Amino acid sequence: MLLSEFKLNDNEPIYKQISNELKRMIEEGMLVEGSKLPSTRELSNILGVSRNSCVHAYELLEDEEYIQITKNKGAFVSHRFKKHDLRWRIGWEDKVSSFGKMAVKLDIIKSEMPTQKGMISFKSIAPDEKLFNLEQIRRDFLNSISVDGEKLFNYGYAKGYKPLIDYLKSYMQNKGVNLSDKDILITNGFTEGFDIVLSALTSAGDRVICENPTHNTAIKLMMLHSLELIGVNFKNGVMDTEQLKHELTDNTIKLIYLTPSYHNPTGTVMSANKRKEVYELCRTSKVPIIEDGFNEELLYSSSHVSSIAALAGEDNSVVYIGSFSKILFPGIRIGWIAADKKLIDVLESIKRSRNIHNSVLDQAFLYEYLRSGNFEIYLKKVRKYYKDKYMFAVNCAQKYIPGCKIYGEGGLHIFLELERIDARMLLDESIKRGVDFMPGDVFYIDKSSKNTLRLGFSRVGLKDIEKGFRIIGECIEKLQK
Amino acid sequence: MLLSEFKLNDNEPIYKQISNELKRMIEEGMLVEGSKLPSTRELSNILGVSRNSCVHAYELLEDEEYIQITKNKGAFVSHRFKKHDLRWRIGWEDKVSSFGKMAVKLDIIKSEMPTQKGMISFKSIAPDEKLFNLEQIRRDFLNSISVDGEKLFNYGYAKGYKPLIDYLKSYMQNKGVNLSDKDILITNGFTEGFDIVLSALTSAGDRVICENPTHNTAIKLMMLHSLELIGVNFKNGVMDTEQLKHELTDNTIKLIYLTPSYHNPTGTVMSANKRKEVYELCRTSKVPIIEDGFNEELLYSSSHVSSIAALAGEDNSVVYIGSFSKILFPGIRIGWIAADKKLIDVLESIKRSRNIHNSVLDQAFLYEYLRSGNFEIYLKKVRKYYKDKYMFAVNCAQKYIPGCKIYGEGGLHIFLELERIDARMLLDESIKRGVDFMPGDVFYIDKSSKNTLRLGFSRVGLKDIEKGFRIIGECIEKLQK
Questions:
Q1: What is the chain A residue with the closest CA to B335?
Q2: Which of B139, B155, B341 would you mutate first to test chain A, the one with the most A CBs within 10 A?
Q3: Tens of pLDDT along B311-346?
Q4: Rounded to an integer, what distance in angstroms lies between the CA atom of residue B83 and that of residue A73?
């Protein structure tokens, strides 16, 4: 019964009727302990009685310890009324689906040691937020509000904010991607994009090819979709296309997932020749390609190489998943998928079913940041900044960590292959000395590699890079004894 | 091959070597048609040669129509070089998984007629964005940037932005919810919250109970999870608890999904007595409850009734999914799940696997909007505004649409049950006369109801409400003849 449904009679004083009704609701647990009652002003409105009667009723309830009145806070139901003698406890662990259990098991944040404060951590490959220009951000945000006003805060479209989509279309066309009969869907970063693509194209048990090692979030998602992963190995930082050719002879392969630029974790860039070779192999076998555009934007610092989506020309064979958020604003979670129109139509429906659409505010802000040219200014700055840092990190690795192979051609991390040293044992040692990194095994589909590690340097200062690498080198020395 | 890998020799002029190499890359499709070349300044840096050699090389390439140079835009690969005679066309329709097909089929936006410009549309139950106060929004945004700075734009936590979580905890405690051994996860609105909960707790084929009719997005999600839906019917706008009791005797029921406040689509509020009765029935059968807190915030306008999560007290049996975004800022997509700690731990891993976390910027902004008291001010304003509109809509319905039952006790919509009129036929008629609404069948798990419709009035002006309802009434009259 709602308070508003409460019928007053003429036989009893009104304050008495109100307090009796509230008592009953409290005793029967309909007004629960700790909950706030309406103010006497609100209550008098709801019931259509004088405020005085309500004040009087509340005083009576307080005297009888049904409620507690705290000045400036209001009236709250007392804690003495318990509803049940026995609590109903659900053992949620037993209720969790096999999917839920797998999501926990594959969540490396829950299995890895958390980085302690004060440690030098090479775990992250997030951008250095000090490079973000708050003044530009403020201005671009205020501009986007001026343009669209309140609309930014109401429902938008599942496909995304139109001006941003249009911007990304010309952005991709400038990079040589043929977009005829193609379209774009905005997603919550690469992660959601890849999840949606897998939902649209695969079913449990399907076989897919990926690089091995590869992005651990991608491995997690493919496993959560219960796919059978076929890993193509790297030789000296380069994908083994002989093996790829062999794997592609299996005509049940659903798709192939590739990260051609600053590959995570090896940091290597697939050469234009290799891209073409890989594309032609997939073309011959008719296996669609999911291209992860990971950190492609950093490429232009030292080279110029087309994405596989560009090499595909008029073919509709590549599903390109882009994201600025690896180098810019990961906090606002914006990525995109560029693919065949008919496929985007399906992906759009899945996106809508998952979370309706991305934040309109964030999309409008990002659009303004791109449109205003601030993105270009930022890119120039960070390309130089990360390149210098990369050079420094490579020099430090050569100096302090001898006897290892160093992979990586730029980007935000390097990858080491050690000789006869278990990276997990090395991690234990170096954590003791205050240095943290990502053991390479998490990037292998079978966790097979024991002697590799990824060192992200984007958010570590030069002094700490030097100190941290020196400590890692000393730990290796110790383990070699 | 990357440009940076290009080795120069001493036998030929440098400009010639450069242009030959670029020609080869263009001819072999590694530099694709339409793509932009690096500027001559960039190229001279990459290759370590004079800028003049690069300018010369580009001129030669332009003469031979390999590239086109547009002033102030740059050099682009010409369109005359096609790579393949035959395009590789993938028939994506045939590649789509059964899940993807279902997502399209259940996407009512794709099957319903889109609302034409100039029409009076009662389809939407989105808030009226004119009620948002842009000045306050601007201020709260700038404040949140001042507090956290660049951090808002870098990675955050899967569980959510800590100050917002803490705020929501005390917000729920003030509403009488006992949060001991419970926790909160931030999600992209109700939709993502419900999807994550279903992923964690259900597997294909599981049986779940829901109200019938109910929120069509919830029906879609339960179907996409391949659940078997058992609908409990409404009698005169009230859930049939006799039927519920009967359905709960089936001990394979996984969970029950309920929307007790301003139920979508009927607009009715479940009374406190009914809430308690439903809770006790679930308690006896040990069936966990997913409570959709839909528009609960509007409740205090006319009544005071505890959420089922509050009635549960110390029990850990209710998974509460909250969202302000039905009345406030749907565009930024923020909702939350309050549930048992151990369950939240699982939901957090699923959230991380789907899209890492919600936009930190939006969470920090919303926190500031709540903290500053602007939310309370807004709520007071909109409760009155929507209540007045609701009264007006009910009056118009009574006046212009005779012979129908009107359901709804406030909120943003009313629900009509017609006598012997097919709502789809009525929709066809009224669309012809420029009036659009949501046919009720989309809210029924078996689409069984033919004679109901939902009329959202939140974004329709008073004049148009009157005009639109009058037209609907006239269309009914026409159909009755």
A1: A355
A2: B155
A3: 998 899 999 999 987 888 999 999 999 999 999 999
A4: 73
Cis bond upstream, residue B13 (ω within 30): no
Virtual torsion, Cα B186, B188, B191, B197, nearest 10 deg: -40
Q: Say how far apart CA B471 and CA B343 lie, in whole Å.
A: 50
- Which residues from chain A sit within 8 angstroms of residue B89, using beta carbons? 315-316
Cis peptide before A439 (omega within 30 of 0): no
Closest CA to B200 of B37, B376, B350, B393: B350
- Put simply, whether B432 touches A (Cβ < 8 Å) is no
Cis peptide bond prior to A265, omega within 30° of 0: yes
Partnered with residue B238 across adjacent β-strands are B235
Determine whether the interchain pair B37/A5 forms a contact, defined as Cβ–Cβ distance below 8 Å: no
Contact B83 A313 (CB under 8 A): yes
pLDDT level of residue A481 (50, 70, 90 thresholds): confident
| Element of type H or E holding B214 | none
The residue that leads in pLDDT, B198 or B379, is B198
The answer to whether B88 contacts chain A (CB < 8 Å) is yes
State whether residue B441 sits within 8 Å of chain A by CB. no
| pLDDT at position A29 over 80 | no
Q: Are B282 and B317 in contact (CB under 8 A)?
A: yes
The minimum CA-CA distance between A479 and chain B, rounded to whole Å, is: 34
Question: Parallel, antiparallel, or unpaired for β B435-436 and B120-121?
Answer: parallel
* Tens-place pLDDT, residues A42-65: 888 888 899 999 999 999 899 888
Amino acid letter for position B44: S
Rounded to whole angstroms, the Cα distance separating B270 from B157 reads 36
Q: DSSP for B424-479, please give it.
A: HHHHHHHHHTTEE-EEGGGGSTT----SEEEEE-TTS-HHHHHHHHHHHHHHHHHH
**Span A424-447, average pLDDT:** 96
Determine the residue type at B20.
Answer: N
State the pLDDT confidence band at B269, using cuts at 50, 70 and 90: very high
Backbone angles phi, psi at B7, to 5 degrees: -100, 130
Distance (Å, whole) CA B51 – CA B15: 10
Give dist(CA B44, CA B53) in Å, integer. 8
What is the spatial distance between Cα B338 and Cα B430, in angstroms, rounded to a whole number? 42
User: Residue A28: which of A87, A86, A89, A77 has the closest Cα?
Assistant: A77
State the count of interchain CB pairs (< 8 A) between A and B: 399
Which residue has 């789907």 as its token pair? B354
pLDDT of residue A335 exceeding 50, the answer is: yes
* Spatial CA neighbour of B454 closest among B123, B57, B19, B34: B123
Contact B305, B275 (CB under 8 A): yes
- Which chain B residue is nearest to residue A315, measuring alpha carbons? B88
* CB within 8 Å: A88 and B188: no
**Per-residue pLDDT at B6:** 75
Q: What is the pLDDT of residue B348?
A: 98
CB-count burial class (<10 Å; 0-12, 13-18, 19+) for B54: buried
Q: Do B145 and A138 touch (CB under 8 A)?
A: yes
What number of other Cβ atoms are within 10 A of residue B274's Cβ?
Answer: 17
If you average pLDDT over residues A99-118, what whole number do you get?
A: 92
CB B161 within 8 A of CB B367: yes
What is the pTM for the complete model shown? 0.90
Could you tell me if B453 lies within 8 Å of chain A, comparing CB atoms?
no
Contacts of B43 (CB under 8 A, 6+ apart): B3, B18, B37, B54
Counting beta carbons within 10 angstroms of the beta carbon of residue B98, is it exposed (0 to 12), middle (13 to 18) or buried (19 or more)? exposed
- For B340, name the nearest residue in chain A, comparing CA atoms only: A92
Measured distance CA(A311)–CA(A271) in Å, rounded: 12
CA distance A116 to A401: 23
Interface of A with B in 53-72 (CB under 8 A): none
